[in-house]
């Protein structure tokens, strides 16, 4: 596979490694981006990548929590441009749908699209918005929690990241702190038991190869891996993360007697491929 400058640039942005190291890594794995990231990590050149999606689409993540904080929802609605995302009609639509989810608690996306707001199907409201705003609008995903404890939400950067968290207890301030923590630190799980097994094995394999590259004796490699896995857990498990507002505390310390039972973190456009626009070429074409 030909290693293009664009591939090298993408790998450099994802890992912070040097241009030549990135080119070497891509060449070694025949252009496979994920394998190239592992290659650099194994060589000790790149830090662990925290996946946040390859390309961001536009739109907004919105949230709504009931007055008694017992039910809450977070939803992602996409559009084509940032300009449309700032449209008042688009903002009103996201607010209306997030509130509707809390009021109706649909089972899934199909149920949400087929439910009605003021006599109109949600899917029809999306179609109408597409026609009036002039861009494709899509209702991508949502999460809804109902609990006897407390639901809290946090929206970052006007809808670029949205978090919904369910707790067994606690006040509004605690809920907000935990939701902000999740937005900032992007945990993978609440505790060690929730870490994806495949992700854990992949991390162990990368760490073993790192230790081998460092020339460590075989008899101590496994001990080194276990030590580094404990550090990995502190990065990806919410309860073990350092509190972003006070580095002397972990989230478990902050929670006290309360527990987090579930959370959802949506990053706008995460995992969506977005066409790269060549505006100079577009203008030149229109002038012909």
Task: Please provide a written account of the structure.
The protein has 288 residues and is of the alpha+beta class. Among the domains are: 49 residues, Ubiquitin-associated (UBA) domain (Helicase, Ruva Protein, domain 3, Orthogonal Bundle); 144 residues, Elongation factor Ts, dimerisation domain (Tetrahydropterin Synthase, Chain A). Helix content is 47%, strand content 20%. The chain contains twelve helices and ten strands. The strands form four sheets. The protein has a three-stranded antiparallel beta sheet with strand order 1-2-5. Helix 1 crosses helix 3 and helix 9 crosses helix 10. The protein is flat, with a radius of gyration of 22 Å.
Write the layout of secondary structure elements.
Layout: H1 5-15, H2 19-28, H3 33-42, E1 58-65, E2 71-79, H4 82-85, H5 88-104, H6 109-114, E3 116-117, E4 120-121, H7 122-133, E5 138-146, E6 150-156, E7 161-167, H8 172-185, H9 197-213, H10 218-236, E8 242-243, E9 246-250, H11 251-255, E10 260-267, H12 279-287
Antiparallel strand pairs: 1-2, 2-5, 3-4, 6-7, 7-10, 8-9
Family: Belongs to the EF-Ts family.
GO molecular function: translation elongation factor activity
Pfam families: EF_TS
CATH level 1 class label of the domain at 58-190 and 257-267: Alpha Beta
- What share of residues is helical? 40-55%
Number of strands: 10
State the end-to-end CA separation: 35 Å
How many whole angstroms does the radius of gyration measure? 22 Å
List keywords for this structure.
288 residues; 12 helices; Helicase, Ruva Protein, domain 3; cytoplasm; Elongation factor Ts; 20% strand; alpha+beta; single chain; disordered C terminus; three-stranded antiparallel beta sheet; flat; 10 strands; Tetrahydropterin Synthase, Chain A
């Amino acid at each position: 596979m030909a290693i293009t400058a664009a591939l090298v640039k993408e790998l450099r942005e994802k890992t912070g490694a040097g241009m030549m190291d990135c080119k070497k890594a891509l060449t070694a794995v025949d252009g496979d981006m994920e394998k190239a990231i592992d290659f650099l990590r194994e060589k000790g050149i790149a830090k662990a990548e925290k996946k946040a999606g390859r390309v961001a689409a536009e739109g907004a993540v919105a949230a709504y929590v009931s007055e008694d904080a017992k039910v809450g929802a977070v939803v992602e609605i996409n559009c084509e441009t940032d300009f449309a995302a700032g449209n008042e009609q688009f903002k009103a639509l996201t607010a209306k749908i997030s509130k509707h989810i809390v009021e109706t608690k649909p089972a899934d996306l199909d149920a949400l699209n087929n439910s009605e707001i003021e006599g109109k199907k949600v899917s029809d409201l999306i179609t109408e918005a597409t026609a009036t705003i002039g861009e494709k609008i899509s209702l991508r995903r949502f999460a809804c929690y109902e609990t006897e404890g407390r639901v809290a939400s946090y929206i970052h950067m006007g809808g670029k990241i949205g978090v919904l968290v369910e707790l067994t207890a606690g006040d509004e301030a605690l809920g907000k702190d935990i939701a902000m923590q999740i937005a900032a630190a992007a945990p993978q799980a609440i505790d060690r038991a929730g870490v994806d097994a495949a992700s854990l094995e992949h991390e162990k394999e990368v760490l073993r190869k790192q230790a081998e590259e460092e020339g460590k004796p075989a008899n101590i490699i496994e001990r080194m891996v276990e030590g580094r896995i404990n550090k990995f857990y502190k990065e990806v498990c919410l309860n073990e993360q350092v509190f972003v507002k006070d580095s002397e505390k972990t989230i478990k310390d902050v929670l006290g007697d309360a527990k987090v039972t579930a959370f959802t973190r949506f990053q706008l456009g995460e995992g969506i491929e977005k066409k790269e626009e060549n505006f100079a070429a577009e203008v030149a074409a229109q002038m012909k």
